[in-house]
Amino acid sequence: xxxxxxxxxxxxxxxxxxxxxxxxxxxxxxxxxxxxxxxxxxxxxxxxxxxxxxxxxxxxxxxxxxxxxxxxxxxxxxxxxxxxxxxxxxxxxxxxxxxxxxxxxxxxxxxxxxxxxxxxxxxxxxxxxxxxxxxxxxxxxxxxxxxxxxxxxxxxxxxxxxxxxxxxxxxxxxxxxxx
Amino acid sequence: xxxxxxxxxxxxxxxxxxxxxxxxxxxxxxxxxxxxxxxxxxxxxxxxxxxxxxxxxxxxxxxxxxxxxxxxxxxxxxxxxxxxxxxxxxxxxxxxxxxxxxxxxxxxxxxxxxxxxxxxxxxxxxxxxxxxxxxxxxxxxxxxxxxxxxxxxxxxxxxxxxxxxxxxxxxxxxxxxxx
DNA sequence: GCGGGTTGCGGCATTATGTCGCATGGTCCA
DNA sequence: TGGACCATGCGACATAATGCCGCAACCCGC
Lengths: 179, 179
Fold this sequence. Notes:
Two copies of one chain form a homodimer.
Chain A: E1 7-11, H1 15-27, E2 31-35, H2 38-48, E3 52-56, E4 58-59, E5 62-63, H3 65-74, E6 79-84, H4 89-97, E7 102-105, H5 110-116, H6 135-149, H7 154-161, H8 165-174
Parallel strand pairs in A: 1-2, 1-3, 3-6, 6-7
Antiparallel strand pairs in A: 4-5
Helix pairs in contact in A: 2-3, 6-7, 7-8
The structure holds a DNA duplex.
């Protein structure tokens, strides 16, 4: 019976993110195939013909957009979600034109990802709690991400985020942030 | 001979912008048809079968997205550029999925517009813009996404986002937000 | 025509944010 | 070793944003 569960391919060069996402998807009863490189991704796609895929755009500098077509060729019925930490309207338009099913900016939770991929693959009876992240939570995640990219440098992070250092400081200290 | 010039349909409810854009396009030797309402637009499209169109998204209240399909039906070989002052990834993705040829944020000059309407895909020129979104921008995108998930229902969106409806309203109208 | 939902908007009381400024501490380098 | 340079923590305070009323106007199904 588990073989009837939909398969999903996760392509992301960040092992941590990759793993977390894979886990979360498995908990939703999906059969997950994870790849960290384009070749790996193509191999898995050919082999398993997943019906869904999550594609990160920055695979070590390689544009994930370039993977889009090969991936679709390898697994023609696969709905591909492009996910990126450096989202922009331009790449979104490109991605969709190239055949991506959807496009999301990166601080995104599993529910949003599945929602963006269309249809909840689990049992139809559990729909109600598909709550999107609150703005606060989203902001928090984003800040943390940029902060770590900036090696914890608060000033640099503030600049990158175009927000005042004072404000960032205040946000950082005030929020243990729950939800 | 002028009949050999390509025709372009301009749809925008703002008479000023409409006129300015029309003029600029005429100066590029295009035959311009301008419309300020959906009906007008459809009429002109049927009548002239333009090969290009510029469609503004907020036709005072009416979503321009709703016009996309009828417009394509009316003039099947028309390449449609969606142009909006309230650009977001969510609407961009929708527009392209609905068949728009391209999508631009509104402070856009004529050259960009014509380039975007070009027959060939715009260059995937995205090595440099590897910069994280500002918090503001991210918030905007997130709001737009949830809003579209909620079919444009502001109250429902506010609830889903756990933010006050009043605040959401204010954010929605205040932001053209560029980046 | 009524109850229930959405929407736009005016008006506060409260918070959060933008901005300065200053003291502290770390690094790099001549 | 004395600076030049930068990051950090924090106080203070004017300004802007938010939470939270309440109301009038609609739309819609019954």
